[in-house]
Here is the input.
Amino acid sequence: MAAIDGLTTLVGLVGDPVAHSLSPAMHNAAFEALGMNWRYVAFRVDAAALPVALRGAAALGMAGLNVTVPHKEAAARAVDVLDPLARRVGAVNTIRIRGGRLEGFNTDVPGLLDALVGAGASPAGSTALVLGAGGAGRAAAVALAEAGARQVVIANRTRSRAEAAARAVQQAAAGCLVEVADLTPEAIRRAVRASDVVVHATSASLEAGGSSSPPQAGWQEALAEGLRPGTVVLDMVYRPARTALLRAAEAAGARAVSGLALLVCQGARSFEIWTGRPAPVDAMRRAVGWD
Ligand code: NAP
Here is the structure.
């Protein structure tokens, strides 16, 4: 790897927490693969310090940043320019710094589509189920609707949050039929059986199975039991790399897509925004253990 010197270009990650992020290993492997004198560093930043941290990055001449939980929405408000997609989603996960100005992008949305299409999914005309309506679930629902999904069902523990996500999806893609479902075994069983694409975007561990209390208890089992051959299932959770949901998908003959695929696909697009060069995807895959 090129030695750090007076010409090293710095990019990084702001979030809280960041200690377990795979992004530094992934991006530094990419810089090494291309022999670039760049480095990627993770910074834990409090919500109150985010605006000053972003201005500080510009003042230091950094080339860009990734933004992760819980700062993606705040970053969309803090940047100087918003790319149209980031504006529609209301969240920024990538910032390019040029001439001291902060330019906000969202690579979670195209990254999700890259990961799904790479696994053989055809979002156009599909029926999709998104579990979770936080930042990741909302981005997934918007991505699928904008890619031409016929119907998107958003299931979430807190119904009002699913309804807010549904409104955002409807604004982004008026032609898509958007429905909200409860995170109960009955509703999930019904929705998953009708779905061509399933995206799990809650932060509940499916490994823990049965940890929810009524009326949600059992939704994980209903999800696993309802999968059928041909369905494409993406689990945003990537610890462990082969989650209980992905194992259930494989057992049902469905196509299982690891959250590591999404990590690499969104990271590759961030890399290209910062550097203007094609990302060395194989090196990035190896660095995060996506096989
Ligand atoms: P977030 O904004 O905090 O949202 C959390 C979501 O999980 C909400 O829908 C929440 O429901 C739900 N939830 C939390 N605990 C739950 C439980 N016990 N039972 C059922 N639902 C529960 O987080 P996020 O940014 O959307 O991230 C969600 C997940 O995706 C995380 O595991 C994150 O690591 C993962 N992710 C992965 C990638 C990747 O590159 N692979 C990228 C982004 C995110 P309520 O609204 O009811 O609270």
In short: The longest strand covers residues 9-15. Residues 69, 132-137, 156-158, 161, 183, 201-204, 212, 236-238, 259, 262-263 surround NAP (CB under 6 Å).
